[in-house]
Recover the amino acids of this structure.
């Protein structure tokens, strides 16, 4: 009818670089060079999305968004412009400093992908078991911060099922519940 209407949500991928090499992910196998949006483009994008009337932003993509050093500033800009934002991350880099900067501005934090066993997690994610330990510690701190600061963001988790872990789904779901996901 000739009327303008903005997208309900827009997905932003700040980088295709990642700190893991997940067995189920196609992106790290891609031979393309690692790319990262320029800081001013990433931050300015949130202004443009707000000006366009976009309903919300999902920050995720083909890499780990938290590898982009300007992401906290971009999230703050989005919050200043009243953009609802979801961050999808593997959670390993979501340390207490970042949590204090960004969690208050999110409506949803989504962890991709969780498992209850450090060895299985490391095998699935192509990483060291220390990353599982960091993820769990980061989630525990995020839950504590959410409660202490009375934040209202929700926390979701993705579980990747394979022949190696489907028998342990109950244990993984139990871990998620214990963590407050």
């Amino acid at each position: 009818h000739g009327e303008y209407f903005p997208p309900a949500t827009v997905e932003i991928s700040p980088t295709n670089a990642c700190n893991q090499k997940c067995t189920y992910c196609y992106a790290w196998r891609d031979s393309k060079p690692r790319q990262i949006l320029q800081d001013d483009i990433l931050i300015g994008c949130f202004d443009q999305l707000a000006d366009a009337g976009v309903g919300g932003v999902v920050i995720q993509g083909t890499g780990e968004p938290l590898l982009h050093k300007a992401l906290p500033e971009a999230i703050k800009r989005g919050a200043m412009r009243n953009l609802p934002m979801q961050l999808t991350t593997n959670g390993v880099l979501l340390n207490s400093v970042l949590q204090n900067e960004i969690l208050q501005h999110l409506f949803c934090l989504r962890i991709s992908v969780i498992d209850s066993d450090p060895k299985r997690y490391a095998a699935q994610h192509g990483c060291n078991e220390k990353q599982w330990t960091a993820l769990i510690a980061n989630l525990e701190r995020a839950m504590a911060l959410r409660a202490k600061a009375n934040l209202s963001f929700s926390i979701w988790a993705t579980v990747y099922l394979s022949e190696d872990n489907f028998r342990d789904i109950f244990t993984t779901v139990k871990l998620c519940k214990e963590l407050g996901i």
